[in-house]
Write a structure and sequence with these properties.
The chain has helices spanning 7-10, 33-45, 65-79, 94-107, 124-137, 148-151, 157-163, 179-189, 203-208, 223-234, 238-254, 262-270, 290-299; strands at 16-20, 50-53, 85-88, 111-115, 142-146, 169-174, 194-197, 213-216. It has 303 residues and is of the alpha/beta class. The chain has one domain: TIM Barrel, CATH 3.20.20. An 8-stranded parallel β-sheet has the order 7-6-5-4-3-2-1-8. The longest helix is centred in the last third of the chain and has 17 residues, at 238-254. The protein is globular and about 45 Å long. The relative contact order is 0.14.
């Protein structure tokens, strides 16, 4: 099957600050479409380079299959082609990952983000076959996603290098925060796939090594600054990027005081952008952390 490539990919636009978008929810846990539309406009106006929907930060683990597909379609319709939409479609079942990825492609997503199959603990050969099967079944650009701290599954650089030979595997989100590993990954595969940071605190450091941007939690609340920081880094102006990054560092760190997306959803609620909804087993941010996150927001010029 011939790969179907997005015009955004061909123009090099899966680069920069790509927000790992939250899924706005009402207090009863239902999805708030009106707030989702408001967030989309907020990111378009503030220069976010791509929207990553229904990923970890979008609470994909608590969305059912229908909700998952509906949210992708709604986001594509709201964006109206103004920036790329990347849909989280990973699963620990290869069959389910194929179904979700096909659904995202049919909904008009420009690319898909596929997390490593959590809980099963496959071998590296199993990981290779899993991602290869999805890529061969659905001809949409696909970005691998490695976050072993959440999945108990780690795709090694050797395996990424094998997958980089597949035409519609176009990138990897590396959330390990390991710069030696990131450097090795870029040296091996950077001429065939893009390497993105999935760890806000080390995004700029990875971009110094040749990374093409970050899939960012911080960008939910500071989209303009994250865009400016990533653009400065892509342009080689690391002095300017460092000034912005220093101001954002309290957010990079304190938006992970509790499991993502707990702190960032609380911050967005404080900004009046979403209601205070989150699905169990996650709960809203513990009161003991409110002042810390609020001070980080103030340091970034948000409050």
């Amino acid at each position: 099957m011939q790969a179907c490539f997005s015009p955004f990919l061909e123009s090099g636009m899966f680069h920069g600050s790509m927000v790992a978008l939250v899924t706005p929810m009402r207090e009863d846990g239902s999805v708030d479409e009106q707030s989702l539309a408001q967030l989309v406009e907020f990111h378009v106006e503030n220069g976010t380079d791509a929207l990553v929907v229904v990923g970890t930060t979008g609470e994909s683990a608590t969305l059912d299959h229908d909700e998952h597909c509906v949210l992708i379609r709604q986001c594509v319709e709201m964006v109206k082609g103004r920036l790329p939409v990347i849909a989280g479609t990973g699963a620990n079942s290869t069959r389910e990952a194929i179904d979700l990825t096909r659904c995202a492609m049919e909904a008009g997503a420009d690319a898909c983000l596929l997390v490593t199959p959590y809980y099963n603990k496959p071998t590296q050969e199993g990981l290779y076959r899993h991602f290869k099967a999805v890529a061969e079944a659905v001809p949409v650009p696909q970005i691998l996603y490695n976050v072993p701290g959440r999945t108990a599954c780690d795709i090694q650089n050797d395996t990424v290098e094998r997958l980089a030979g597949i035409s519609n595997v176009v990138g990897i989100k590396d959330a390990t925060g390991d710069m030696a590993r990131g450097k090795d990954l870029i040296e091996r595969c950077g001429n065939r796939i893009d390497v993105y940071s999935g760890d806000d605190a080390t995004t700029l450091e990875l971009m110094r090594l040749g990374g093409k941007g970050g899939i960012s939690v911080t960008a939910n609340v500071a989209p303009h600054d994250m865009h400016l920081m990533c653009q400065a880094a892509l342009n080689g102006d690391f002095a300017a990027a460092e000034l912005i990054n220093e101001r954002l560092m309290p957010l990079h760190k304190n938006l992970f005081l509790e499991a993502n997306p707990i702190p960032v959803k609380w911050a967005l609620y404080q900004m009046g952008l979403i209601p205070p909804g989150i699905r169990l087993p996650l709960t809203m941010l513990s009161e003991q952390h409110h002042d810390t996150v609020r001070q980080a927001m103030k340091a970034a010029g948000i409050l």
